[in-house]
Write a structure and sequence with these properties.
- By secondary structure, this protein is mainly alpha-helical.
- The N and C termini lie far apart (41 Å).
- The chain has helices at residues 3-23, 35-42, 46-58, 77-98, 104-123, 126-140, 147-168, 173-189, 193-216; strands at 32-33, 62-65, 69-72.
- The radius of gyration is 19 Å and the shape is globular.
- Helix 2 crosses helix 3 (46-58).
- The chain is built from nine helices and three strands.
- It has two domains: 3-72, Winged helix-like DNA-binding domain superfamily/Winged helix DNA-binding domain (Arc Repressor Mutant, subunit A, Orthogonal Bundle); 77-216, Four Helix Bundle (Hemerythrin (Met), subunit A) (Up-down Bundle), CATH 1.20.120.
- It has a three-stranded antiparallel sheet with strand order 1-3-2.
Length: 221
Amino acid sequence: MSTTLKHRTLSSAIVDQLRQAILDGSYPAGSQLRQDALAQAYAVSRIPVREALFQLEAEGFVKIVPHKGAIVSGLSLDEINDVFELRKLLEPRLLASSIPAMTAADFEAVAGMEAAFEAAMSAGDISRWGLLNADFHMALYARATQPRTLSIVSGLLQTSDRYTRLQLQRGSSIERAQAEHNELIQLCRGGELGEAERLLIDHIELVRRDLVEFLEAGGKE
């Protein structure tokens, strides 16, 4: 294995672990992520740690601040609007491309994703909510023929994981999310693409609106 590939492999593993630690609150907003301490904790050099922090900055989880290093980002109203508006533009396009090509087995896989999502909700397993929600959406888009758009949406869902978890902890959001997911499955199974696309846009918009109201009311993570 080349040195470059080895560093990339280490960096990817560190990205995954740090992202999860930020999502589960181990590193709350404002926390400083020190390269030396992280390198020591992971028993690696500073190079893969630095690469991991740059990747997390690109994903919006940290900010690299001069003379301070990497700081865990707080919830951002601008980012919420940007991410969810992009999702509203791109995800219906993927849905329209994917659904006509999906098989019965594909729909069973989607239903399985939704069942796992609902089980995690019932169990209060907050750490998995965002990931399972993303898995559900990506399963619906699996047959889409736009690989670049799929890659972008996958990144957007990953970024919105942090926000989705927060939104799902608010009142009736859990029941509404489950109902909308199941209705979306039924519309897609029935080939009602226009209705499915409209529901998907409304579904994403309601999450955005919930989060904006939360932040404007002074909410914190």
